[in-house]
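If you are new to this repository, start here. Below is one unmodified record pulled from the training split, so you can see the exact layout before writing a loader.
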Amino acid sequence: MDFGWTAMTFAGMIKALQGQVEVIESRGDHGISVSAITDDSRSVRDGSVFVAVKGEQVDGHRFIPAATKAGMAALVLEQPAMDLPIPFARVTDSRKALGLLGSRFYGEPSSKIRMVGVTGTNGKTTTTYICKALLEALGRRVGLIGTVSYQIDKETIAASHTTPGALELQQLLAKMVAGGCTTSVMEVSSHALAQDRTIGCEYDVAVFSNLTQDHLDFHKTMEDYFQAKLRLFTGLTEAHKPNKRAILNIDDPAGDRIKRMCPAPVWTYGLRAKADLRAENIRLSLGGTSFTAATPVGSFPIESHLVGEHNIYNLLAAIGVALHEGATPDQVREAVAQVTNVPGRFERVMAGQDFTVVVDYAHTEDALIRLLMAAQTVKTGRIITVFGCGGDRDRGKRPKMGGAAVRYSDVVILTSDNPRTEDPLSILQDVEVGVADALKEHPHVHYQKVIDRREAIGSAVRDARSGDIVLIAGKGHEDYQIIGTKKFHFDDREVAREAIERLRT
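And here is the target side for that same chain:
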């Protein structure tokens, strides 16, 4: 596919850094032509610019000799350079330079389409899927970048990260432009913001969903986590594109903080605080949700297949995006009614059973509580919750999730998630601290520990009776389990369906 970029010189690329990254020194012939840009020495070919980036685990500067041998044409780095036979530029921040150079190389694609970014701890995936559906109702061709997959018109690409690396992101946006997309809707993770993966992108609309504990293995403190999210909104300035807006969950205290610091116009949304977008006359059932949307352009009815109060927040955020982008109430209402499912988000598994089985990505305390509360509002029998916690990740949330599961369930089955390089039993012991505390106040809850996830799901299905709701939380759309450093095929939906079908034999 021709992405639409044109040949350029190294000097032309370096101009992209002006005013944003300091060039400490540069040497050599900057008039050479550039045919590729990479931060992976294994991808270097003749004509490549290699950007040496200090990563969390690997320092790209170690691979400068390999990149030189592979035929790189020029180099961008942070460390003082030895005598090199090629042009180079030494900068104060090569990670930031990578995104800016990538944007320039790929033709500054974010300047050519409308950019919608959604950030927050929970709800990003669902909100982006709804946004895509609503904007397509306006006749737009919409690309999607997020946790489940990257979608460019009819093409679907497996997602490597919620928000891809800086160069991959710019390439995806360039593909969208070349493919005729007029809008990109993307999940913007806190990791991506902190690591400058989104630098070089100019957003038109930014959405904040919520802020609850997660990723503290990376951010260390909740304030660091908040500051990373905030970057999406403080960057929402009238740089080159007009008509910017932030859409913020005002029921979350962090939403009010962002509102005070955001330079762009703001619409707020919420259920409890006074907000620009509100839901009134709410009715919840296992079949879906209905409410009256009170908005800056008037009130209108909403009927959605999505279940639970947490999805009302997601719907309000997406409705705000659509209205800002020019949708009419009728277009919004009709498009919302067509959204039947988001992969791995309160996704029902139906195989003829007389009880409900739901698979959901909930992997934080807040997300698990939202899932359980959604089930509480529509249950007619018991709630049976199967969940675990990922290894090599924030340990502080483990007991909190255990406590939440006990408080809102009738049966809790604790099992493995993605243990990675941790001992699964050790992970469960962390969770059990919260389970034990909660059982003191909720002694009626039946609790068991089944380390093998397949066996745990089978146990929940066998135990379920007519009217019960079985919640399988933590992995959602994922079709793998990571044990050690290897990935093995494992899909909660497939495993649950097989367990249900075995009931007939």
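Two things worth knowing about this chain: The chain has three domains: 8-105, 109-338, 347-502. The chain is about 35% helix and 25% strand.
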